[in-house]
Specification:
It is a single chain. Among the domains are: 349 residues, Na+/H+ antiporter like fold (Up-down Bundle); 38 residues; 129 residues, Voltage-gated potassium channels. Chain C (Four Helix Bundle (Hemerythrin (Met), subunit A)); 131 residues, Jelly Rolls, CATH 2.60.120; 90 residues, Jelly Rolls. Helix content is 64%, strand content 7%. The longest helix has 39 residues. Keywords: Ion transport, Membrane, Sodium, Sodium transport, Transmembrane, Transmembrane helix, Transport. It is a multi-pass membrane protein.
């Protein structure tokens, strides 16, 4: 059989030779070939279980077989014709952007940001060493006479590390994310430099506009990489990121499958009989050379990596050497070696064969070496501290499962279930590492190792909390990005726990912005009209006063200055100036004359105070320089040959620029407004950041026990997180005090968003159940989304409410007019300066302080929670000092006033503070008038607050707020005296929380101290302190049973029958009547009491 080109009139592939052939395809079935390749790739992916080296190797062999068939059969030749006639530049623009984008998308932007210079040096070193070393070997040891140009292009192509295949073996075996991103980043840089090099060579070879075309090509690569780096989980809607990522993975794999198959087809279509045995030996030489070049590269950059990354070691160096895997990025450039070479060689298919052989060999051999090295060197083994943390988490999950099974056994509908099988199937066993007794004692981690591992877990939990808050709508996207970025940045710093001061450079930004604003305000101060009054005696002076201090006079000066702008340009332009000398001199005379008139009118009114204003002094200096300029011009015209006068005239001509400085005064108000808007946005962003940071610490504090079971580690972590939380709360209070209007606007906007979000969630629930029609649901969904979108135009500032309106914010008043009216008459406004002490620890309470503005710090030596001192001593409970910060809307002294006991903390003003004060006598007078209803509501609010701040274990996911409990009516308070017993966890109780005092498990004699959750395995408890308060959370649709008294049943608002509800309303009216009687005794006017009673009713 003759050669392929001679026997069949099929064109030589443009991917290799670039020759033109006249044969065309009459039946374009190329799309069938593409679909068939996708089908074969998918089948291989299923059969070989995602082992990509074998899949891509078989696809290249599959393409080679198709190419051989194309040499034999005309039908296959026509099928392959579109592929062989397409220029490689087309495939480069089709496949390269998606693969580059996917490689960049998988890389962590913040790791790249921290190690950019190290990764850049590694990538450039890899490119240079491959360019020199591999190029030298190819020139010296290749039997075929390749020119230097082809050898260098070949060395660049084969020296690229594939950013997709190089990290693919490391993804699922637990290797450090930093190591993976170093490999991926170095690969992206070497690929980017190589593509730019080929692009420049392609452009200069075609003799086109090099700068225009290459900058467009370079910008395309940079844009794709930048877009991939900047996109993260926050860039997509919640729930869509996984779908989009999977789709991109499928498309990327399809691109790689097409590239390997196409290269196999092109090689199969060529004549391979002329390839000798030397080619096989040269492939082995190339493989050794590529790995040696990789080793040389890592040896050169290892000092930089050792100095900059504390995790880098010789083990990482071995991994970097083995990770020099070639793949699709090499193959996509291989055809351009021949296309861009000026001297054509005899066997161009050798370029493709060598590159494909290197790709297959490195994918198979180096991938196995990378995986084996990671396992052997212990880089993919879970460390013992992390293993302990995972075991703690598994034990916690198993405890939750056991509690669920225990509760499910009590349901009547599930009594006939074989619970032994359920317990057996739901049992979780985590395989532990094999360690001998001696080895365990020697290798047990120290506290330093455990605290470092716990620090990494804390960073991960915080980042998860930030993403959750963003998805819930409680944290803006900008704030979430800053917080996640800061967590990743400081997560790489050994021993560093991120604090609020590490999150942002807020202090510096705020300081220079305020300084700029103060400077602009100083420059824009206008005291002329305030300090001067129109003369009463002289009508002429009064007329001048009206002219000088009118806005028309001021803006006339601005207009004259702006009109002089064009003559000034002509004066500075020598060519135009020489032809308009006389006109420019006359315009200069007129301008100075108008400035003199303006200054004269002001001096007549202001006299010597004219020079007190800085802008007036600037105008006066402008006139002086203008007069000197006129004199110099006149002298130059008299003595045109005097060099000194000419130089002075030129210098004074440039001084005319100061005439335009007064325009700056006109734009000062606009600049001040812009600076104020920037400050407000910065304060709003910082407030959101601080709020999100505090919430992440709250989420983390209640997961510490799952991180580490060692008590010393737990205590140290708790202290660090508590200290960071106090600093963040303090910073939050300072921000709120500095700009109350911005914070109130932000809180209002967030409240609107939360309400609309819940309404939208309920709408979608009703829509999914068919209660709302599809068309109506779509319209209402658009309505809610439009309202949420309109919040983008919400004002940056909202005026703060008056002190009277703050009473509506007290949750236990429940916005009832009769209660608010009562306390409005009793409340007093109290003002404190910075450093003032509101109350001292150990003093009797004077009353409640509702903070209106400002911030107060609370410091107590002990949070006792009503636990008997003897029981505290016997149980060896820690005496932890208490520090807290309260801001606007918080209340000081609730618990002490309820108990009529000494204050448990000292309240100190951190800023100037305003508070609404309700005395203890007035509070208990309200208790008497409204009976115990009011006292019970305050106790319920205090109990819910304690549960939210101190109890999270076992109730994670419960939305436990006062308003939520009122809406769902699923929480109530039980009072248990000493030695009294109570049955808990019946069919209606979901959680039983001890919020004050202590109780005893009657069955096991186990003590439970406040604040904590009583386990669901406990069914009978006994009070052991003088006062014991239990917060009981009920199951949904459960009715309350077993109340201790009829009075408590009355106080359970929302679950009465109609008669008890009416009785409550009668009680409120009686309270209103008592309030009116009180007003009658104060004002001695029955009309006042009658009007008040009618208004309240």
């Amino acid at each position: 059989m003759n050669d392929f080109e001679e026997n069949i009139s099929m064109p030589n592939p443009d991917l290799i030779c670039g020759r033109i052939d006249e044969v065309t395809s009459s039946e374009p079935h190329f799309m069938l070939l593409l679909f068939f390749i996708i089908f074969v790739a998918g089948m291989l992916k299923v059969v070989l279980r995602n082992y990509e080296p074998a899949i891509l190797t078989l696809l290249s062999l599959f393409g080679f077989c198709i190419g051989l068939l194309g040499r034999q059969f005309n039908e296959v030749q026509q099928l392959l014709y579109p592929l062989l006639k397409t220029n490689n530049y087309v495939f480069l623009n089709i496949f390269l952007p998606l693969m580059t984008f996917m490689a960049a998308l998988e890389m962590d932007f913040y790791i790249l940001k921290n190690m950019f210079w190290q990764i850049l040096i590694t990538g450039l070193t890899s490119f240079v060493t491959a360019f020199v070393f591999i190029g030298y070997i190819v020139v010296k040891l290749n039997k075929y006479t390749w020119n230097v140009q082809s050898c260098l292009l070949f060395s660049i192509t084969i020296g690229i590390t594939d950013p997709l295949q190089s990290v693919h073996p490391l993804k699922g075996i637990g290797v450090s994310k930093i190591l993976i991103d170093i490999i991926r980043g170095e690969s992206l840089i070497s690929c980017g430099v190589s593509f730019v090099f080929f692009g420049i060579y392609r452009i200069f070879g075609r003799k086109t506009s090099a700068f225009k075309a290459e900058f467009l090509g370079l910008s395309g690569i940079i844009s794709v990489i930048s877009l991939g780096l900047l996109l993260d989980s926050l860039s997509f809607r919640p729930g869509t990121d996984i779908t989009i990522t999977k789709f991109l993975f499928i498309m990327t794999f399809s691109c790689q499958a097409f590239i390997f198959t196409f290269m196999g087809i092109v090689i199969g279509c060529e004549n391979i009989r002329e390839i000798e045995f030397h080619s096989l030996s040269f492939i082995i030489i190339l493989f050794v050379t590529v790995n040696a070049t990789r080793m040389l590269t890592i040896l050169l950059v290892s000092p930089v990596l050792l100095h900059s990354c504390y995790e880098f070691s010789w083990r990482w160096g071995i991994m970097l050497i083995c990770a020099g895997i070639k793949g699709s990025f090499n193959l996509i450039l291989a055809p351009d070696i021949y296309n861009l070479s000026q001297e054509k060689i005899v066997l161009p298919q050798l370029f493709l064969i060598y590159v494909l052989a290197m790709s297959i060999m490195t994918m198979i051999i180096n991938s196995a070496m990378v995986t084996h090295s990671a396992v052997t060197l212990g880089l993919c083994v879970i460390s013992l501290p992390r293993h302990m943390a995972m075991q703690n988490a598994i034990l916690h999950i198993q405890e939750v499962i056991n509690n669920t099974i225990m509760l499910s056994k009590t349901e009547n509908i599930l009594t006939n279930i074989l619970w032994s099988i359920v317990e057996e199937k739901t049992k979780i066993e985590y395989p532990s590492f094999f360690l001998g007794n001696d080895e365990k004692s020697d290798t047990f981690p120290t506290d330093e190792v455990l605290i470092e591992e716990a620090r990494l877990h804390v960073a991960i939990i915080q980042m998860s909390s930030f993403e959750t808050q963003y998805k819930d709508g409680s944290l803006p996207e900008a704030a979430a990005r800053i917080l996640i970025g800061a967590s990743k940045n400081y997560g790489t710093v050994q021993g560093k726990f991120m604090s609020i001061y590490d999150v942002t450079t807020y202090e510096k930004t705020r300081s220079w912005l305020i300084k700029v604003k103060n400077m602009l305000v100083f420059l824009s101060s206008q005291k002329d009209k305030i300090n001067f009054f129109p003369p009463e005696k002289s009508k002429f002076m009064g007329f001048i006063y009206k002219i000088v201090f009118s806005e028309e006079f001021q803006y006339t000066g601005y207009i004259v200055t702006l009109l002089y702008f064009f003559p000034m340009i002509m004066h500075l332009w020598p060519t135009v100036r020489d032809s308009h000398v006389r006109g420019l001199i006359i315009v200069n005379y007129y301008f100075v004359f108008l400035c003199i008139i303006e200054a004269t009118l002001k001096i007549l009114i202001m006299r010597n105070r004219y020079f007190y204003e800085s802008w007036n002094r600037l105008e006066f200096y402008t006139i002086i320089f203008g007069l000197i300029d006129i004199i110099c011009i006149h002298l130059v015209r008299e003595k045109p040959r005097d060099i000194v006068l000419i130089q002075c005239s030129v210098i004074l001509g440039f001084f005319r620029i100061i005439r335009f400085f007064r325009i700056f005064k006109m734009v000062l108000p606009t600049l001040i407004n812009i600076i104020e808007e920037i400050i407000k946005k910065r304060l709003s962003l910082m407030y959101s950041i601080t709020k999100g940071y505090i919430q992440s610490l709250e989420d983390t504090k209640f997961l510490i026990k799952q991180i580490s079971s060692r008590e010393s580690i737990f205590q140290k972590l708790y202290e660090i997180l508590e200290m960071n939380r106090r600093d963040a709360v303090k910073e939050l209070g300072l921000i709120e005090h500095e700009c109350r209007e911005v914070v109130i606007a932000l809180k209002t906007k967030q409240a609107i968003r939360n309400v609309l979000g819940k309404a939208l969630k309920n709408l979608r629930f009703l829509w999914s159940r068919g209660i709302i029609d599809k068309i109506e649901g779509i319209n209402m969904n658009k309505l809610f989304l439009g309202k949420i979108k309109s919040l983008n135009n919400f004002p940056m500032t909202v005026p703060p409410p008056t002190p009277e309106k703050f009473l509506h914010n007290i949750v236990w008043l429940e916005d009832k007019d009769v209660l608010i009216e009562f306390f409005k008459e009793k409340a007093q406004l109290a003002c404190f300066d910075y450093g003032d002490i509101i109350c001292k620890e150990g003093d009797m309470p004077q009353g409640l302080y509702l903070i209106i503005s400002g911030m107060s710090s609370l410091y107590g030596s002990l949070l006792h929670f009503g636990i008997d001192p003897k029981l505290r001593t016997l149980a060896h409970l820690p005496r932890t000092p208490y520090t807290e910060y309260l801001t606007s809307g918080d209340i000081i002294g609730e618990l002490s006033c309820l108990l009529k006991r000494e204050m448990g903390y000292t309240a100190t003003c951190e800023t100037i503070l305003q508070a609404c004060f309700i005395s203890l006598e007035d509070l208990y007078e309200g208790f008497d008038i409204f009976w115990s209803f009011l006292e019970y509501k305050i106790w319920l609010k205090v109990a819910i607050s304690i549960a939210n701040h101190h109890i999270k274990e076992g109730i994670m996911g419960e939305e436990l707020t006062y308003q939520r409990c009122l809406e769902k009516n699923n929480a109530y308070l039980e009072n248990l005296s000493r030695y009294s017993e109570l049955t808990i966890y019946n069919d209606t109780m979901l959680h039983v929380l001890i919020v004050y005092g202590s109780v005893l498990n009657v069955a096991t004699d186990e003590q439970h101290f406040a604040p904590s959750r009583i386990p669901s395995t406990c069914f009978q408890i006994q009070g052991t302190s003088n006062i014991n308060k239990l917060l009981i959370i009920q199951k949904e649709n459960a009715t309350r049973k077993g109340k201790s008294s009829d009075k408590e049943e009355y106080y359970d608002s929302g679950k009465f029958d109609e008669s008890s509800q009416s009785f409550k309303e009668i009680n409120l009216l009686l309270g209103a009547f008592c309030l009116c009687l009180l007003q009658t005794t104060l004002f001695n006017d029955p009309k006042v009491s009658l009007k008040s009673f009618l208004r309240i009713c």
